[in-house]
Design a protein that fits this description.
By secondary structure, the protein is an all-alpha fold. Helices cover about 70% and strands about 0% of the residues. The chain has three domains: about 45-115, Alpha Horseshoe (Serine Threonine Protein Phosphatase 5, Tetratricopeptide repeat); about 120-180; about 195-260, no CATH class. Helix 7 runs antiparallel to helix 8 and helix 8 packs parallel to helix 10. The model has no long low-confidence stretch (mean pLDDT about 85).
């Protein structure tokens, strides 16, 4: 075989290889293989009652993740079935039960938007408020979650005062209010410790005015006595101590406030009756 024939054969083989590679490359970019478009696997359509019962069974066994999958499939395949509302209701609870509190809140908002007149509204508000409440951290962190819990649970209590969920909501409200009061006290003490008495007074007054049922109220009044005296505001200090004594006469905080005033030749007395009135 001549050298020329060998070279021509090699060139033809090279062109075939290049053409084959180009075809494979174009097929891949276009999303197709050499044997036609890829097959699309269709989701099996399952009757809504079957999906709903499957979710119920999983919930009874506390298989919440499996239940959520069935509920999501039910809503996706049968958005207008008679089980759609029940599926959304169960989704709220299942997310809450697995600790997916943000998902539970989103599911609750979705339910309330779609079914504003539902007889389950009180329950949904309770789970939503509890989802906020469960995420409340220590008092050194941002307290927006505590405020969100208060807003939601207060709506439940005010709208459905006789609901079976309202008693639990009231208890959670007390804790959430205490959390916010604790945050104010922490900041107030920081300002006081750094000699920023006006700033500390504003924080302590916030506790007295807004969180009067919290466990921090007695200390807040005492800290006001301290801060007012540090600024030379005698009348305000005497009034704060008098209010503390009137409401918590046996409190150690009152005894401390009384001793502090006595050390400066002063006694508790309400001189400024408007001291703790809220503006507006």
């Amino acid at each position: 075989m001549s050298k020329e024939i060998i070279i021509n054969s090699a060139n033809r083989l090279l062109r075939i290889v290049i053409l084959t590679l180009a075809i494979f490359s174009l097929s891949a970019c276009a999303g197709f293989n050499l044997f036609g478009p890829p097959k699309i696997t269709q989701e099996e359509i399952i009757p809504p009652e079957t999906l709903y019962q499957s979710a119920l069974d999983d919930m009874d066994r506390q298989y919440f993740q499996a239940a959520l999958k069935s509920l999501a499939k039910l809503e996706r395949q049968h958005p207008f079935s008679e089980f759609a509302e029940k599926a959304k209701l169960m989704t709220v609870y299942a997310n809450f039960s697995t600790g997916k509190f943000d998902d539970a809140i989103l599911a609750a908002d979705r339910y309330l938007a779609l079914y504003p007149n539902s007889k389950e509204t009180a329950y949904i508000l309770y789970v939503k408020g509890s989802s906020y409440y469960a995420q409340i951290k220590d008092i050194t962190r941002d307290q927006q979650l505590a405020q969100d819990a208060i807003d939601t649970l207060q709506l439940l209590v005010s709208t459905y005062p006789k609901s079976k969920y309202s008693d639990d909501a009231r208890e959670s409200l007390r804790v959430a209010y205490d959390q916010l009061a604790g945050k104010e006290m922490s900041v107030g003490r920081y300002y006081q410790g750094n000699g920023k008495y006006l700033a500390s007074i504003n924080r302590f007054k916030e506790v007295v005015q807004k969180y009067e049922t919290s466990t921090h109220i007695e200390e807040a009044l005492f800290r006001l006595v301290e801060s007012y005296l540090s600024l030379g505001l005698i009348n305000e200090a005497r009034t704060s101590a008098a209010i503390l004594g009137h409401n918590y006469s046996s409190s150690e905080w009152y005894q401390s406030a009384y001793n502090l005033l006595q050390s400066q030749g002063l006694t508790p007395e309400v001189i400024d009756a408007d001291l703790f009135k809220q503006n507006g």
